[in-house]
Design goal:
Elements (H helix, E strand, L loop, with lengths): L4 E5 L3 H12 L4 E5 L5 H10 L2 H4 L5 E4 L10 E4 L15 H18 L4 E4 L4 H12 L6 E3 L2 H16 L6 E2 L2 E2 L7 E2 L5 E2 L2 E2 L6 H12 L1 H9 L5 H15 L4 E10 L5 E12 L2 E5 L6 H24 L1
Parallel strand pairs: 1-2, 1-4, 2-3, 4-5, 5-6
Antiparallel strand pairs: 7-10, 8-9, 10-11, 12-13, 13-14
Helix pairs in contact: 1-9, 4-5, 6-7, 6-9
Bound molecules: adenosine-5-diphosphoribose (APR).
């Protein structure tokens, strides 16, 4: 079977780190694209030279020519600028929306059958712009946010209880902003509802830390996170290319699910060879539902703000 081609559009911290994970797991041929000359070529060559040691036979290449993404089966978009201290994800709106327009048009022309994972922030607006520019069906345009936000939530719960992260199952839904919604009612540890194990006030603190998890790292590193974001994207790429049928929280285009129409929002989806094969509807508590609705209202405001500056 021919190897799949994974195109990383943006070869900075998140893009290259994810490419490296996909390379290590031999998921497919890796192509890195960036506007900074030398960067994608150099990172690709560096990665390729690790192949004999790690024992993978995939192609790795990089260039500053967007046309080289041609024929990619999966595109991962991290192109744009990341946050600096004091910036919210929304502050990136104008510059990154322009980048999405260019990138979206290129994908439409050069990779008409690709599954597209958008990561650039502000995520919910950027994935909307990619969907518009590509004109791809909703199952093939998805945003990465929920896997990362849920991973942070799971990390903090596991640490609190001193249990394996593998035993913690959790979901963070809604938009990828400070009003994202950790779904406490569906969070379990070894199958036991988390509310039976951690007192509500402490869960409030853990959830607040989760919501500000990205900002916590920006404050430490003076730029945004990349190991955990890259791992989150990797899980989505893998679910698609290997048809894993994983249920993962992703930004998906909603048409009636959760009472939302014509808008992206973080919801649990089934990811497999068909891309977003299904949106899974879970029952939210009234408080979770109103927090979800507030978060979606913010996504709509963000898209309206983007439309003003585009
Ligand atoms: N086309 C291609 N690449 C571009 C373009 C463009 N028009 N504009 C910028 N880039 C490249 C930059 O040269 C840089 O190498 O995108 C890359 C972004 O990488 P970083 O600056 O290292 O940022 P990173 O931490 O990877 O974050 C990328 O993902 O998680 C989000 O908020 C984050 O929006 C940010 C994005």
């Amino acid at each position: 079977m021919a190897r799949k081609k994974i195109a990383f559009i943006g070869a900075g911290n998140v893009g290259a780190t994810c490419a490296h994970m996909c390379f290590l797991s031999g998921l497919g041929d890796i192509f890195l694209y960036d506007v900074v000359d030398g960067l994608p070529q150099g990172k690709a060559l560096d990665m390729l030279e690790a192949a004999p040691v790690v024992g993978v036979d995939v192609r790795v290449s990089g260039s500053t020519n967007i046309r080289d993404i041609e024929g990619a089966d999966c595109c991962v978009i991290t192109a744009g600028v990341p946050r600096k201290p004091g910036m919210s994800r929304d502050d990136l709106l104008k510059v990154n929306a322009g980048v999405m327009s260019t990138v979206g048009r290129a994908i439409k022309e050069l990779c008409p059958n690709a599954f597209v994972i958008t990561v650039t922030n502000p995520l919910d607006a950027m994935v909307t712009q990619i969907k518009r520019e590509t004109g791809f069906p909703k199952n093939r345009v998805v945003g990465q946010a929920g896997v990362l936000d849920s991973a942070r939530y799971r990390t903090f719960i596991a640490a609190e209880l001193g249990v394996s992260v593998a035993s913690v199952s959790a979901m963070v839904l809604g938009g990828h902003g400070d009003d994202m919604v950790p779904i406490r009612s569906h969070t379990t540890v070894g199958g036991v509802p988390v509310e039976r194990l951690i007192p509500p006030e402490r869960l409030d603190e853990i959830e607040q830390r989760t919501r500000q998890g990205g900002g916590e790292i920006v404050n430490l590193m003076k730029t945004s996170a990349y190991y955990a974001p890259a791992a989150a994207i990797w899980e989505m790429v893998e679910a698609y290319l290997l048809d894993r049928k994983k249920i993962l929280p992703c930004a998906a285009y909603l048409e009636g699910e959760y009472g939302v129409s014509g808008c992206y929002a973080g919801v649990p989806v089934l990811l497999g060879a068909g891309g977003v094969e299904k949106v899974i509807e879970i029952e939210l508590t009234p408080a979770e539902r109103s927090a979800f609705e507030r978060s979606v209202a913010h996504v709509r405001e963000l898209v309206a703000a983007m439309d003003k500056v585009l």
